[in-house]
Structures are given as C-alpha cells and as structure tokens.
Amino acid sequence: MSIKSQLQSIKTKLPQHVQLVAVSKTKPNEDIYEAYEAGQRIFGENKVQELVNKYEQLPKDIRWHFIGHLQTNKVKYIAPFVDMIHAVDSLKLLTVINKEAEKNNRNIDFLFQLHIASEETKFGLNEDELNQILESEEFVKLKNVNLRGLMGMATYTENVDLIRTEFSNIKSCFDNVKMKYFADKEDFNELSIGMSSDYEIAIEQGSTMVRIGSTIFGTRY
Ligand SMILES: *Cc1c(COP(=O)(O)O)cnc(C)c1O
Questions:
Q1: Among 50, 110, 174, 207, which residue is least crowded by beta carbons within 10 Å?
Q2: Does the pTM exceed 0.90?
Q3: How far apart are the CA of 81 and the centre of ligand 1, in A?
Q4: Measuring CA to CA, how many Å separate 145 from each of 56, 95, 125, 170, 188?
C-alpha cells in the first residue's frame, strides 16, 4: 500500500481529539513529501542531525516533533524551529532547552517522559521523580518552556494486558498531575502514547497523540 493510503486508513481509526505524529526517522525526504502532499503536517524524528537536515530541505509549515532521547549539547541545533519535544526526562535537560529557547525568543512545548514499561532499557521518570521536579523552585523559574503533558512507551510485547496496564498507569499519573498542579492550565492536555503496534490500545486508554512510523512508511532497516 502507498504512504497516502496507509495514512488514510490510520486516520479513519483516530478519534477527532487524537493527533497523528508521523514518525519519519530513517526515511527519505520523498517519503515525507508524499505524506505531506496527503495532508500530514506533524512529523517525528529521533536524531538531531537528521531532523536538522530534513527541516532545512522540506516545507516550512511542517511541525517537527523530537521524539527521541535528547542530549543537552545538541538542544541548540533544534531550538530555533522544533514544535514539540516529547521525551524530557530531567530538570537538567529542561533547563538547557529553556536557555536555548530564550536565545531564540521562543517558548518551546514539551512533554515529560514517564518510565512505564517493565523493561529496564527505556528512559523516563517515575511518578515521584516527576512530582519532585514539578515542585522544585528551578522548574517554576523556567519561562521559555511550556509543559503540555506526558509521554510514555509501553513494553515491546505481544501481551496486550501488560500494554493496557502500562498505558492505564500513565493515564492515572496524567490525571493526578493535572489535578494536583495544572487544574487551571488548559493546555496541559496531551498524552503521547501509542505506536504502530499498540496505538489502538493507547487510544482506548486516553491517548491524545499517537506516534506512528512503520505502519505509514514501512519497515525501517
Ligand atoms: C520509532 C518511534 C516510534 C514509532 O515506532 P513505529 O513502531 O515505527 O510506529 C514512536 N515513538 C518513538 C519514541 C520512536 O522512537
């Protein structure tokens, strides 16, 4: 199936309130352009240099989301244009993003990444660490970053019940944080969960943003 028809078939499965981040990492500009021509505007990348190259070469109304693990020394390359950073997992990283955003006279939207999988290898904060950051003086002082919600990745498994539990846990955490700190912050409203293999479960558990790559663009090699 073509990229265009894959996009269309995914979109018929997404409720109105769920945004699609088309994960284009490792894929060539032609593929991204095909999705763009089919109306897709939000793309996700996980390598800084690759993202910068694609930003320079592709239409300027694309909204680029950085979805991977971000190193502090590379923030400066994407700060001028990135639309959202999905996987912030430390106050140190966030402080650097804030500084670079300020230099560019911007306010950068971001999500905190929560560690929800039972696998050890994935990055992210636990709920206590998140609360500690949110209650810290340093966090409150950061004026050029805007917390839009939470992001997480479920365990890579065929076990649907485990995936469902992990997504349900991050949704509870989202609701707790919202109630405790952001009841009046209307734009704390994004829950970025769900990829090609598990986005239907994620939507059922409250996702507002799915990050889908291989189902749209084909297997990555
Ligand atoms: C690669 C990636 C995706 C997309 O994965 P697919 O299985 O190809 O849909 C989603 N989120 C993150 C953080 C990724 O790195």
A1: 50
A2: yes
A3: 21
A4: 23, 9, 18, 22, 12
